[in-house]
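Inverse folding, one chain.
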């Protein structure tokens, strides 16, 4: 368990979680990593820790560089336990270490671990001198918890970006240029969509606060470290936090006897006829977190459900609850579906899309099984609305 050198006297000492497939609600098919960083200076500094079950792995990596007992500072950028979970075990070794955190972080760590460690709270603009180096702090509340902050290692031009710019990606490679960029950006987009999307305004403020920094490396808390494609990921974050969308549609649905599915494909035909790319997402075969990855940049969000017991299907209701919580903006919504007698589901879907603040296309509702002429009518009417 060797550390990975990212600059002179600066090491990645985190842990790789090859097996995790669900991270509090979204699927992590490529696993995850929990990144911790060790800076060797006059004052030995550890930035973040890892999930508690991976503490031994982290400590072994640290021990390849320096004895953990010699750590002087532990910077806790985020209270969530994939970041701070090993803090109690590390503090058992580094008994004299000072824990540097935000004011909200101080409150959160005390509530989590009920310990009176040697804490030092910092705010935006505060500087920590560790010898030859200085770490400058910027508070980034609600990216994605109230306690979040980032640190900038001035002399080495490294931004320790916490959850921003991260990806859930287990890999022996530690840098963005060691893997296909498309994969890294895909996982970064999924991470943004499922974790950070509701906090676009706060992300924009954080980007503005860091705009004047001379950054040569971005070291996030998850995934690979950015050293070659920094302009690309910053530009993507700028677009994502501004809710800039592409002329594209995501068609999300579940179906009982294929009638709603037939409508979904009639809807797709309308978008295709207008030259608008589409993605079909059946909720039986697609996880909601993967669908949200598409939602991040799609302008049109089309959601379909048949009626079951006067309601939409539970899978559709679950997706809409998830979607509403993530709060994407500047979208156009379409509700569609089939029904037998009551037909309440389509209006229920439409109501949630309206609550999301979406502009709405005219809902599509068909009783029982749509025939070819009805499906063609759906396509033609929607094409007219998209003109």
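Residues assigned per position:
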């Amino acid at each position: 368990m060797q550390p990975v050198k990212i600059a002179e006297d600066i090491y990645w000492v985190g842990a790789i979680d090859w097996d995790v497939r669900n991270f509090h609600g979204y699927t992590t098919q490529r696993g995850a990593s929990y990144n911790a960083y060790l800076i060797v200076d006059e004052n030995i500094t550890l930035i973040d820790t890892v999930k508690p079950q991976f503490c031994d792995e982290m400590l072994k990596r640290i021990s390849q560089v320096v004895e953990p007992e010699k750590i002087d500072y532990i910077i806790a950028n985020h209270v969530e336990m994939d970041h701070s979970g090993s803090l109690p075990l590390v503090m058992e070794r580094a008994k004299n270490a000072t824990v540097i955190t935000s004011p909200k972080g101080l409150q959160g760590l005390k509530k989590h671990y009920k310990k009176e460690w040697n804490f030092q709270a910092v705010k935006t603009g505060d500087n920590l001198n560790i010898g030859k180096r200085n770490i400058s702090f910027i508070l980034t509340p609600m990216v994605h918890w109230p306690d979040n902050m980032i640190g900038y290692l001035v002399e080495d031009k490294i931004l320790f970006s916490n959850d921003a710019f991260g990806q859930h990606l287990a890999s022996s490679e530690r840098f963005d240029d060691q893997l296909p960029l498309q994969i890294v950006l895909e996982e970064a987009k999924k991470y943004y969509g499922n974790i950070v999307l509701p906090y676009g305004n706060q992300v924009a403020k954080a980007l503005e606060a860091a705009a004047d920094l001379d950054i040569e490396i971005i070291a996030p808390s998850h995934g690979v470290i950015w050293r070659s494609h920094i302009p690309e990921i910053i530009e993507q974050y700028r677009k994502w936090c501004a809710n800039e969308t592409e002329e594209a549609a995501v068609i999300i649905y579940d179906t009982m006897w294929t009638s709603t599915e037939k409508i979904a494909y009639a809807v797709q035909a309308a978008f295709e006829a207008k030259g608008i790319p589409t993605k079909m997402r059946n909720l039986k075969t697609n996880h909601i977190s993967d669908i949200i990855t598409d939602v991040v940049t799609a302008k049109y969000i089309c959601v379909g459900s048949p009626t079951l017991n006067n309601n939409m299907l539970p899978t559709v209701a679950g997706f809409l609850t998830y979607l509403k919580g993530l709060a994407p903006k500047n979208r156009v919504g379409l509700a569609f579906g089939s029904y037998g007698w009551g037909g309440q589901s389509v209006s229920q879907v439409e109501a949630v899309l309206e609550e999301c603040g979406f502009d709405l296309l005219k809902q599509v509702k068909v009783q029982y099984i749509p025939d070819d002429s009805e499906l063609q009518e759906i396509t033609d009417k929607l094409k007219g609305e998209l003109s």
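The radius of gyration is 24 Å. DSSP finds twelve helices and 24 strands in the chain.
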